[in-house]
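Q: What would this complex look like in 3D?
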Amino acid sequence: MQTTTHHQPTTSPEIGGVGHSIPRVEDARFVQGAGNYLDDVNLPGMLHMAILRSPVAHANLVSIDSSAAMELDGVLAVVTGELMAAHNLAWMPTLSGDTQAVLATDKVRYQGQEVACVIATDRYIAEDALRLIDVEYEELEPITNPQRSLEADAPLIRTDKEDVTDNVSFTWEAGDQAATDAAFARASKVVSLETHYPRSHPSPLETCGIVADVNPATGQATIYMTSQAPHAHRTLFALVAGLPEQNIRIISPDIGGGFGNKVPIYPGYVVATAASLLIGLPVKWVESRTENLISTGFGRDYYMTGSLALDDDGRILGLRTDLLADQGAFYSDAQPTKFRAGLFHIVTGSYDFAAAHVTAKGAFTNKAPGGVAYRCSFRVTEASYLIERLIQNAAYEIGMDPAEFRRINFIQPDQFPYTSPTGFIYDSGDYETAMQKAMDMVGYDELRAEQAAAREEGRLVGIGMASFTEVVGAGPAHTYDIAGLKMFDSAELRVHPTGKAILKLGVKTQGQGHETTFAQIVAEELGIPATDIAVMHGDTDNTPYGLGTYASRSTPVGGGATAMVARKLRDKARKIAAHLLEASPEDLEWEPGKFSVAGSPDASVTIQDIAFAAYTNHPEDEEAGLEGVHYYNPPNMTYPFGTYIVVVDLDSDTGVWTVRRMVAVDDCGVRINPMIVDGQIHGGLTEGFAKANMQWITFDDDGNCIGSNFMDYLVPTAWETPRFELGETVTPSPHHPIGAKGVGESATVGSPAAFVNAVIDAVAHLGVRNIDMPVLPDRVWKAIQNA
Amino acid sequence: MYPPAFEYQAPDTLEGALAALAELGDEGRVLAGGQSLIPMMKLRLAAPSHLVDINRISELSYVRRENGSLCIGALARHNDVVGSADAKASGVVSSAAPWISDPLVRNRGTVCGSVAHCDPEGDWNSVMLAARASVVAQSSSGSRTIGIDDFIVSFFTNSLEPGEMVTAVCVPIPSGASGGAYMKLERKIGDYATVGVATQLELASDGTIAQAGIGLTAVNYQNTRASAAEDLLRGETPSDELFAEAGAAAAAASDPQTDVRGDAEWKRNVVAVYTRRGLAQALASATS
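A: Here is my prediction, written as structure tokens for the whole assembly.
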């Protein structure tokens, strides 16, 4: 596909199709406080739940005495693992085929694990009652890192599994070991890096929650839930709780950020639903900030080693990587079934070489489970970080500028579709054009000269780059599924007699702007103004089945479904237009919003005329109405890419580094709403900066979580966040109906390596090759001291 | 926020507040800005049975000069100091004010509340040590003035008696040329200090250092006066070498812990660097 600098809209601003930066329709209600979030849901007679969590990381559960809590006025029930076990609900399946405790029955395996739940008439009483529950623990050795977990004398964490004798959660490999060994055998140089991508947390501003409302008379379960995937969750509820699926309605209201955190099903959801079923009244549970941070799906926590084999000319011959995943107490990564380390094998990145081999192992530890794709398409972030860090180090070792080293190793535009050594088929790309644009924007050559001069004066300046390639938009259904559900997605479109439309989606916005951009796709295809199209999502009773929004899949998959259903309606509209114009359908010409007879431009009907006719004057051989549904199974993933460049100034006395410039050139194919794309990139770059600079969840030796609130788990504000300078190139996806690729995660995936590379670059002349994230000033200072 | 149940009253006068505190004794806690107390109650780390809210006592809301001192009343918000022309009389106080937490906290939190809280990671007590402040404590039976070194007892512990509250904190306004600086290394805006150094210099007419104040944040069990460094400076002619020596002496007075904010050895180094830089900045403003 041809790469261009900008996609020109083909519709008028009044129609507002693809390429127009129309304002987000959802913002009017959000900025006025008129949204409807989970905690805004209040039902008559509603009860409140609070969760007692384990204060220790690893202990046998000896006894639970809830008698004092039960005596408190307003307490209706104290639910324990014993009670859940009586209903066969003490354990639930995870998204990676493991089981996870709903409420502990045998032992607790991480600090913050759910031990008991209080159901009370208000939340204050429920919280008071938690303090009256007396739990006796018999403490065991806490395992706080995967290295210890794999030692022969480490205590067994998963004593609940009969056939398990070690703490290994999975092993996995990809690529070709023999070919990779051969490549390393003929290499003239091998460059290696060992680094940790620390545990982080998606930390959406709105925490997770549920209002479960099971009607005892009808058995109808209406479940309001902070869900990124309401349809999939309904099916899992049916399978886990044994409720008939037609009786379950999941409503995911306005969501205040997801970032992968709202993909899993959490124990609190199960207990609240069971409690509502048993008591016959609605039950609400909304997490506190601390509950969200210490117990729900985290991201990353991969210990990674990588080696590049190089020839005499600086060409990459092969890549070898080995991973050790800190999985927490249960293996509950949200990822396609076939792939045990997500899509980490995209680790060959933007570079053309023949051999790669990836080995991976997961280890259970006494930490919260998770491994969700935090603003990331299933471990692509870790992969992109490793290869982009390795690339810079390799350039240093062979004495070549990192940009030049990338240039000679990039996959070239004429090589697409490109089959990677681990089996991905990249759809389209032009990496050098994007890199050159970023270099021009930042003034790369001048900066290198300034850096050299600054070193002479004793000042430290660093220039770091990352030229990432992402893989997003799962399906295709033949390869990708979540818990067995194929990763297609759907759209249902109904055009009403006055020409106004409702679009219903299987995906679910958490702030990405679906209500605006998906209307723009319909506007592009049907010529109905985007402002005349209402977009509905999140309610399983009135939207078609879909796998939900995560892994940058909404535009590649749901967007594809939307374009395709609009085209179905346009085909029908052509027949109605032919009927109205008394012409043959094949003699009609389409322009956005209008069919006209070829050669007689005055003989035309608008899409609004056609919609009216569909209900008032439809052809006899056609069904009335103008509506349809499409289930879209993408033929391939999409492969967004880009180059980010960061410039830092580093204070060698303290190790403090500050970002002077940050240039981001993204190519996500055709941009539906460029303003929203820019916003997505700003958000992703901010999250990338956070991880590079300040953000991590760590644990002390006893397994206490350090990072249990926003005093300790740091989210940057506008003050710390660098200014971002954005650029774009446009290389459409050849297989996507409108050429779009997905963008929600590119910046989170690509930017951490750029920030870290910049800091390393400032001290590389001293011999420093690695500082783990977050690149805290003490780590920088020590690296300089030890250099 | 789901704290345990508590009683609450909001008297209109200082006398009313002091009477309530006298009656409540250990059970009563003063609520001013609430920027530390409320989060502690939210996390159930503090569970006072009775709050005495002083926010209606407008007479306590001032930043003013009186009797050769800069005095900050118990209801003055951090941001009142940021915006105060009078506060410029103390270089170290006016330098520190914009570094307190974030704009939201500065709009609500109070200087006196922070001083009374005695959190070793809090900024104000280092500033008050450097400025040689006095704390005004009042109870229903009278008023007393406590030097800041005696006021700070330990980790989250001050020398107030039951029934007493802080009504003001006052710093002497230097008579000679003076300057001050607060240097703070923090992970992000709103974070507590990883390391903070407050420095204040007063020059004699011959250019030598008449008085020096250095207070350290977050590197000991309590905010700490770097006495040896102050002694080293007093009477000497300022120079880069002298400031570097003072930095080393201040670092020796610190005993930081390795934690999630960073390594102890590095923190001690930052104390040295920030003391040196803070003194240079204080000197620059004293001589400008």
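A: To summarize the key features: Chain A has three domains: 38-140+207-255+262-295, 381-472+636-786, 489-632. The mean pLDDT of chain A is 96.
Q: Very helpful, thank you.
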